[in-house]
Predict the 3D structure of the following.
Amino acid sequence: MLQVVLQLDGERVVSARPEIGYLHRGKEKIAEYKTWHKWIPYTDRMDYISPMSNNYGYIRGHQKLMQVEVTPRCRHLRTMLVEMARISSHLLWLGCNAMDIGAVTVFLYTFTEREFLYDRFEEASGARFTVSYMRTGGLARDVPPGWEKKVEQGRGCPPRSTSGKAS
């Protein structure tokens, strides 16, 4: 966070001194009293727009330190989840910026698409925002049957043909 200390002469700014880190939530101090596993929920709240990405970054750090390898399926699911979180974040950006210039319809469309992604997060983790889904060496649990197909088909998209030809 940033605080700027201004020195004023009436309404004229004489100097501006930035003080980086002024607003502090004390996450590091809280982490000193938590096990690695118990810290996972805090990563959700650091950036609630993309909690899956924060879970992943934190967990990857553990795995590198402990030299833990995950299964190909776990890597596949994690990649899907993090990419879905990235898309959700971009949809929020696009929708809010569109609304700022008066394009409220774009905002509604982007939030409808985000709901599709949040439904998939909820099916996988049991939560929409504060997912706490990733674990060192894996995930909290496997995704439900049919989950990957729903993600692949997307919202409002026709099913993909398995023959390679358009249906």
In short: Residues 77 and 143 are 8 Å apart (CA to CA).
